[in-house]
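Notes from the 1:1 (GR / supervisor)

We went over the backlog. Supervisor wanted to see one worked example end to end before approving the batch request, so GR pasted a single chain during the call. The sequence is below; no edits were made to it. Supervisor asked that the structure be written out right there so they could see what the output format looks like.
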Amino acid sequence: MQKQCLIVDDEVAVCQMVEKVLTSAGMEAVALTKSSEAPGLLNGRKFEMAFLDLHMAAPDGIELARQIRHSRWNRTTPIILISDDQRPSAMSVGFEAGASFFLYKPIDRECLLKLIRATQGAMDYGRRRTRRVTLQSKVRLKFGAEVLEAETVDLSLSGILVKAGRTLPLGSPVHVSLDLSPRLKPVVGAGSVVRVFGGNQMGIQLDRLAIAESERLQEFLLHLIPSE
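Structure output shown during the call:
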């Protein structure tokens, strides 16, 4: 069965474009132009990712993002907010509501395809996908007063898989300092442990990154993902 994605945008052309690119990536789409139809789908169907227009009639993209983050089926689903509003205040509200990143109008098809590949299967640690970026980098995890020196196995825009001397309990909040490259400052933020396996590996969801840090991670990873 093909993975399904949710698209909610009151512009038919936007829905059609995103759906076409998703189809080219081997995925199915449920496209809605009426946002009021979306809440009924969130608690009974699993979506691989969700594309939400920021500004719509109620519920808008912010409210739908919050509902997704509180839903049983989709609370870890990557959320892409679509908007022509590039104000820092709009981005801040979006990230606080649970957005993984923003996609700005007019939508660039190549950028959209890379974002789809970057987020496809994000945080699904039961399936190791080639679309996640395999990268060994140093990462420092702070849990309370304890500091763990670890190494990434792979990473995506939404999370990292790390190998450490020991694992932390599921749900543990951690402060993350990720060294992407010797030439770059570490990406810093916070997240939580969502998967533990193998005795020394943890999946960490990066759910509390500042806007600037999220943009740096996105820019770094997208250059490593092939267009074809």
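Supervisor's comment: Residues 121-130 have pLDDT under 50 and may be disordered.
Batch request approved.
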